């Protein structure tokens, strides 16, 4: 395995080339048209800057500090505002304040821009908050990033959060796991995106095995010794189901403190759709896990 410094330097050099002309901007414009949930009473939203990143903190009087939320969107879409359906719920119903960031998106910004932004945000947060009061949480690509961020801050020698919560993460970008193809017909959100290579917009050229198996992009390959307790969640009918399973099995074998919650017959990233009973059940399970730490 190449060093983190060599890995990042190589990818930065590759990112100097022009990116794909695929119109991700149109997809983002369509997503931006979705209605933003009404701000619940007694919640406060404040725009903040975290090392140059537009971010927001959602808070409620007497809440605990806090969820560091990293949104999904296949690394090419999503933002803090579009995740208010879940961040409002976390603050209003679960008793935790929430910081949500807007990291740089692919394909304009190549890997490792996304994880670098998450690291910069966390470094900024640590100037004001104790790491023991912070919980990493994210869905889909954001679920991948919270795991990768935990591994990266270990490399950097930074304080660990209280826990890491990953909803429907992609944990192995290299191996073709059974659910990547077996669940295509039952995953109406991602379909065959994983089978085709969801990480490819992050790179100019077709990524190599060495790049795809690096633990910052595929957290399955990471060393979790020293990381905090981890809560994984997935749907049995989504294409990323096996990503959660293989990481859970690895961590259990390593005697890591880990929990796995699986729901049947629901969509990818259902956990952020807080109008669903399954999402509410999973979030209740998450905070029972966290509050018992």
Short description:
Helix content is 34%, strand content 17%. With 293 residues, it is of the alpha/beta class.
Distinctive features:
293 residues; alpha/beta; Rossmann fold; eight-stranded mixed β-sheet; 17% strand
Structure description:
- This protein is an alpha/beta fold and 293 residues long.
- It has one domain: 3-Layer(aba) Sandwich (Rossmann fold).
- The chain is built from ten helices and eight strands.
- The protein has helices at residues 4-14, 24-32, 84-93, 113-125, 141-156, 178-182, 193-196, 209-212, 241-253, 277-291, and strands at residues 43-50, 53-60, 64-70, 96-101, 135-139, 163-167, 230-235, 258-263.
- An eight-stranded mixed β-sheet has the order 1-2-4-3-5-6-7-8, with helices on both faces.
- Helix 3 links the parallel strand 3 and strand 4 (96-101).
- The longest helix has 16 residues, at 141-156.
* Major sheet summary line: 8 strands, mixed
Task: Give the CATH level 1 class.
Answer: Alpha Beta
Number of helices: 10
What's the N-to-C terminus distance?
A: 33 Å
CATH topology: Rossmann fold
């Amino acid at each position: 395995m190449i060093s983190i410094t060599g890995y990042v330097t190589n990818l930065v050099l590759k990112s100097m080339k022009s990116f794909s002309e695929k119109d991700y901007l149109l997809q983002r414009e369509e997503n931006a048209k979705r209605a933003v949930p009404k701000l619940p009473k007694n919640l406060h939203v404040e725009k903040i800057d975290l090392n140059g990143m537009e971010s927001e903190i959602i808070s409620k009087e007497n809440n605990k500090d806090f969820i560091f939320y990293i949104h999904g969107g296949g690394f090419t879409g999503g933002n803090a505002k579009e995740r208010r359906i879940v961040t409002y719920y976390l603050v209003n119903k679960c008793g935790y304040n929430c910081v949500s960031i807007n990291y740089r998106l692919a394909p304009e910004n190549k890997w490792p821009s996304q994880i670098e932004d998450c690291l910069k945000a966390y470094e900024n947060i640590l100037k004001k908050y104790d790491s023991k009061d912070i919980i990493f949480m994210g869905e889909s690509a954001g679920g991948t990033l919270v795991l990768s961020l935990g591994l990266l801050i270990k490399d950097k020698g930074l304080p660990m959060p209280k826990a890491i919560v990953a909803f429907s993460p992609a944990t192995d970008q290299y191996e073709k796991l059974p659910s990547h193809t077996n669940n295509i017909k039952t995953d109406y959100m991602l379909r065959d995106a994983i089978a085709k290579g969801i990480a490819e917009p992050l790179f100019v050229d077709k990524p190599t095995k060495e790049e795809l198996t690096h633990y910052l992009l595929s957290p399955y390959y990471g060393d979790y010794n020293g990381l905090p307790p981890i809560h994984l969640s997935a749907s049995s009918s989504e294409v990323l189901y096996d990503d959660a399973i293989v990481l859970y099995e690895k961590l259990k074998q390593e005697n890591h403190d880990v929990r796995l919650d699986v729901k049947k017959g629901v969509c990818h990233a259902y956990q952020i759709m807080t109008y669903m009973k399954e999402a509410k059940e999973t979030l209740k399970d998450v905070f029972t896990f966290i509050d018992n730490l």
